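Support case: user asked for a sample of complex input and structure output to validate their parser. Sending the pair below.
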Amino acid sequence: MTLKYYHAEPLANSLKSMIPLREKGLAYESHYVDLHRFEQHSDWFVRVNPEGQVPVLDHDGTIITHTTVINEYLEDAFPDDNPADGPLRPRDPVGAARMRYWNKFVDEQVMNFVSMHGWHRLIRQITKSIEEDRFEEIMSHVPLPDQRAKWRTARSGFAQKDLDHAMEKIDYALVKVEAQLGETAYLAGDAYTLADINFYSHCGVMANRMFPDLDVDTRFPNLVGWRERISDRPAVQAALTSEDRTQPGLRTWSGDGREE
Amino acid sequence: MTLKYYHAEPLANSLKSMIPLREKGLAYESHYVDLHRFEQHSDWFVRVNPEGQVPVLDHDGTIITHTTVINEYLEDAFPDDNPADGPLRPRDPVGAARMRYWNKFVDEQVMNFVSMHGWHRLIRQITKSIEEDRFEEIMSHVPLPDQRAKWRTARSGFAQKDLDHAMEKIDYALVKVEAQLGETAYLAGDAYTLADINFYSHCGVMANRMFPDLDVDTRFPNLVGWRERISDRPAVQAALTSEDRTQPGLRTWSGDGREE
């Protein structure tokens, strides 16, 4: 049995499916895809995933894409490989439904809004020095029309009203998560699940560094406790310290760098 | 065991979870929620679902919301109640992943864009005769900020560029579905699954009537055959002919009425 995981830096989508692989103790071949060199649009990678996006799971030649789908797949395909404190998807139907409610919330109401701010900072830096002809050549290799549109917008800069709206959505999500964590230890109940891994990877792990104006560490104490419990897990530590080739000056998304 | 299903007309979200209930032969109490009278924002309904949205499944007092979550819940909670041609969620991990890939596509790339056109036609008609004070009073009962924004936009009319973009997304989805149905009998493979029910309910069942300019019945023969196979299913027939209190003149969404 061979598992290959194609991914970029351990943040957002690439982190989100790496954590379950580590939590489940599944050995996998790590294939780093260099987004700074547009490798996700290269011929070899588009043969792996015609949508030209990371991450991708290859399980004995079967390709699974989209992190929420990958993570449920890992639960279906490897039901007996679980962390010591239990499976990442609750076995009871109500618990699984709570997990999916939160996954859906993160996928549809959080991920794209954090991503917009990440792209606004990072992709603008990456693309601003590229000549128009070269940029158009790069765009010609982007398979999904929506992704092409996002690249163009990121290069020219997202509209301030869209950035402001995204910030409102992120704040709304933080307030909602904080309230839930006042009632239960984890998002879907008392157990750590894929829903926690989802919000953590897309927002929780870096919201305090990425959005200092939101005063995350002051306003959301339940979230801080939850974040630290998750960050302390050995599987999460292993994922977070995996390969990161982002130039330090470009680490604006994760908050490790400074905006130029 | 008591199942209650709170729903509006058998179209879009309300249809999407009604079909699995029927396919699985599960007896349920039908609770009609009258969207034309804003009953989804009423005190009694917001006590059922604090988000003020239909449909809702109540299983012995446990509330499950969001149709993709409800439909997976029904598979988890009633694994042995299946239509004669097999379960609605494939039992093999790869089949389940294919189903979730398509569910995610419909949830994120199709549903809101068809919905925008439906709201643009229907909600404008419903709200245009309402005085400003009364409209603001109605808005004060809408729990979700995003939904309030959508109501306001629908009342004044969506921007043409947003409607055009939505139409591009719908056309893209129809082309993608047509290609898939050229390779497999159903979206996730050879079996009818929740993914088919999802696309059917949000787009497939009414795209030809709702968007005559798209020439669905001419351009997408695979989709037409698939639509007819699904429409012929007794469970789907039973759902489609359930209660519909929409005034005939307002059936612009389903295409049964004419735009005024």
